[in-house]
């Protein structure tokens, strides 16, 4: 594996008496899609929340490009180039795609108008349109309310939003869970393109063939620990499932 | 191990490849936009369609309702050409709506953010009482006394708005209940302050404002116009306005986008209360009495106008321009019925059903839009 961009060691997290993460390790490299898999309740979402600043860990350390970091909030992580595509997308359905992309980070007009809080809509729209085009997404009308888009298009908007703001790491929690075959294919292409831009992508998924199709490497979480790491090439679904369920303890990579 | 937890795609999942560009247009934060398309790069045949701002506007609720308003004006003008399309009618209607319109601008903000404010009528009364009491406490007939009274009215309104906002955001009491509570409380407090009797003594300087009509229109009309224009511009073109739409559209998304949702909502309720305070000062200026018992249905009239103008009950959609149109429609109907000798009681009947129809149409549009 290339030098890890984001690396977590010995992350521990408990909810009351329930120990959800027990010294979990995790690492992702620039330009790679790293899949994070594990059975329901293995702690995947919890780990991602910790690595994206939404939760603070009880134990362990996080390093970004070798430097030790601590996130007090998701905004801290945003400031360091780390974004998350949440499972529920968190889009505003009434607003357009461009408006969603710039939600909370609106650009203001230069000069006195900007000081009065006047939005620079044209620039925001142009930048959003360029980002959608660069990412090859099929959002046709960036002013149509997001609610009018298909599930796949909505997912694309959410992914493009995170990519526009992340220059280091993007976490995606089950981005294809609600999509049909064709839309899943498009979103997977998009995920691949995000990684090709040099961003480290972390993909949580329960769909093993999909994981093997799009990921460069796979890390398996079980009972709050990383139990296996695979290079996707040459790995089989059976191996992944074996590691997830504990039938096969191993470190194939 | 043969069991593979690979997910099958959900049955009947829609395929969007052949979907036409969406036609469901909405009022949203309408405004200028350029036209043009971008050809795709990298992702196959990508077309980004751009609806012209004119087409977008024409399919929005304010435009429909504006058309209804225009037709009403033309209808009454045709029926009574000598009585309806006169400056006197224009003056009456604009004066009638000015107080409601000021409150409706605040209500538009609150409702776009997904909230609700039933208290404005009572806050209007309370602010008027505070203004009258302040002026009589200061004594004298000077302009400065009036200015102090008006400031007190606005502050009193803001204070009620802050109470509303804090109860809703900090104590998490639903907006409907909170503002129902303050609706009663503000009216009761007004009656406590006055012993239940209207205050009818106001300084001469205020009466001067009442009787002066620059360019034929009352000062109240100018104040209402100013509030509407400023409110409309801020909602449509500023970051504050955009955050208002975001909060109303998806609170969680706004929160994750780093917006302080609670603080924003408190500000909106404070604005709504403050504008009700302005309305209180306007009402006292117009009638030279506090009209304690005359505002029980103000909030409902305002909400009717705001909803007629296309603001969604679920938040995230609405414009001040629509609200202006929505406030005008009942007033035009009322005046039109008077000049055409239709019993004016019909106005309430008609508006009631128009309101229901407007929300039904909104619902249909929503359902069509959310088909995916
Ligand atoms: N806020 C919370 N309070 C208490 N327990 C929690 C909380 N959040 C998660 N848990 C528990 O932590 C465990 C791990 O949850 P997590 O969501 O990280 O799993 P996951 O691997 O993402 O599972 P899934 O595949 O179902 O999404 C679960 O047993 C869950 O019940
Ligand atoms: Mg999860």
UniProtKB/TrEMBL annotation, chain A:
InterPro entries: AAA+_ATPase, ABC_carbohydrate_import_ATPase, ABC_transporter-like_ATP-bd, P-loop_NTPase
Domain ABC transporter: 6-248
GO molecular function, one term: ATP binding
UniProt keyword terms in alphabetical order: ATP-binding, Nucleotide-binding
Protein name as it appears in the record: ATP-binding cassette domain-containing protein
Family annotation (SUPFAM superfamilies): P-loop containing nucleoside triphosphate hydrolases
Species for this entry: Actinomadura fibrosa
Gene3D superfamilies registered for this protein in UniProt: P-loop containing nucleotide triphosphate hydrolases (3.40.50.300)
Automatic annotation (TrEMBL), chain B:
Keywords: Cell membrane, Membrane, Transmembrane, Transmembrane helix
One Pfam family per UniProt: BPD_transp_2
Record has Transmembrane as a keyword: yes
Cited InterPro entries: ABC_transp_permease
Biased composition (Low complexity): 1-26
Transmembrane feature ranges: 61-79, 100-130, 142-163, 175-196, 216-237, 313-333, 345-361
Classification via CDD domains: TM_PBP1_transp_AraH_like (cd06579)
Biased composition regions of type Gly residues, renumbered to the chain: 27-38
Localization per Swiss-Prot or TrEMBL: Cell membrane
Topology versus the membrane: Multi-pass membrane protein
Chain segments carrying region Disordered: 1-38
Name of the protein: ABC transporter permease
């Amino acid at each position: 594996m290339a030098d890890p961009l984001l690396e977590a060691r010995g992350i521990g997290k408990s909810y009351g008496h329930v120990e959800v993460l027990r010294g979990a390790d995790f690492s992702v490299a620039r330009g790679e899609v790293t899949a994070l898999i594990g059975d329901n309740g293995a702690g995947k979402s919890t780990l991602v929340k910790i690595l994206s600043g939404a939760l603070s860990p009880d134990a362990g350390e996080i390093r970004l490009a070798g430097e030790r970091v601590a996130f007090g909030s998701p905004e801290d992580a945003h400031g360091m180039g780390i974004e998350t595509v949440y499972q529920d997308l968190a889009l505003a359905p009434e607003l357009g795609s461009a408006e969603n992309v710039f939600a909370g980070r609106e650009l203001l007009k230069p000069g006195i108008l900007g000081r009065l809080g006047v939005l620079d809509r044209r620039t925001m729209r142009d930048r959003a349109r360029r980002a959608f085009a660069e990412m090859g997404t099929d959002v046709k009308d960036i002013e149509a309310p997001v609610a009018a888009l298909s599930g796949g298009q909505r997912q694309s908007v959410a992914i493009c939003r995170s990519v526009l703001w992340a220059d280091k790491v993007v976490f995606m929690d089950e981005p294809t869970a609600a999509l049909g075959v064709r839309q899943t294919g498009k979103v997977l292409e998009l995920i691949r393109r995000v990684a090709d831009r040099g961003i480290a992508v972390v993909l949580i998924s329960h769909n093993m063939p999909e994981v093997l199709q799009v990921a460069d490497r796979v890390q398996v979480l079980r009972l709050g620990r990383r139990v296996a790491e695979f290079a996707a090439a040459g790995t089989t679904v059976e191996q992944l499932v074996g590691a997830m369920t504990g039938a096969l303890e191993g470190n194939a990579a | 191990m043969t069991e593979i937890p690979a997910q099958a795609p959900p049955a009947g999942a829609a395929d969007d490849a052949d979907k036409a560009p969406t036609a469901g247009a909405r009022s949203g934060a309408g405004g200028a936009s350029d036209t043009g398309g971008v050809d795709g790069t990298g992702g196959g045949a990508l077309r980004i369609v751009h609806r012209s701002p004119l087409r977008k506007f024409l399919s929005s609720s304010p435009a429909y309702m504006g058309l209804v308003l225009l037709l009403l004006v033309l209808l009454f003008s045709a029926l009574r050409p000598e009585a309806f399309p006169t400056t006197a009618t224009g003056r009456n209607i604009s004066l009638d709506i000015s107080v409601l319109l000021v409150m409706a601008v605040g209500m538009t903000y609150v409702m776009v953010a997904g909230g609700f404010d039933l208290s404005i009528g009572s806050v209007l009364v309370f602010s008027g009482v505070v203004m009258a009491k302040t002026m009589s406490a200061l004594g004298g007939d000077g302009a400065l006394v009036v200015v102090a009274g008006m400031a007190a009215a606005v502050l009193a309104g803001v204070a009620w708005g802050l109470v509303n906002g804090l109860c809703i955001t900090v104590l998490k009491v639903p907006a409907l209940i909170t503002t129902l509570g303050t609706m009663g409380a503000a009216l009761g407090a007004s009656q406590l302050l006055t012993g239940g009797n209207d205050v009818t003594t106001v300084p001469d300087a205020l009466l001067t404002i009442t009787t002066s009509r620059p360019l034929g229109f009352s000062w109240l009309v100018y104040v209402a116009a100013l509030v509407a224009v400023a409110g409309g511009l801020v909602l449509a073109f500023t970051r504050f306005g955009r955050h208002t739409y975001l909060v109303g559209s998806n609170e969680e998304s706004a929160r994750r986008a780093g917006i302080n949702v609670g603080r924003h909502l408190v500000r909106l309720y404070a604005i709504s209360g403050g504008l009700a305070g302005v309305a209180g000062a306007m009402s006292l200026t117009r009638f030279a009495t506090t009209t304690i018992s005359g505002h029980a249905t103000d909030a409902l009239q305002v909400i009717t106008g705001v909803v007629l103008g296309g603001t969604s009950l679920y938040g995230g959609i609405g414009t001040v321009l629509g609200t202006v149109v929505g406030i005008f429609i009942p007033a035009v109907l009322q005046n039109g019925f008077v000049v055409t000798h239709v019993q004016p009681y019909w106005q309430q009947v008609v508006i009631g059903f128009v309101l229901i129809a407007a929300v039904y149409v909104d619902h249909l549009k929503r359902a069509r839009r959310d088909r995916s």
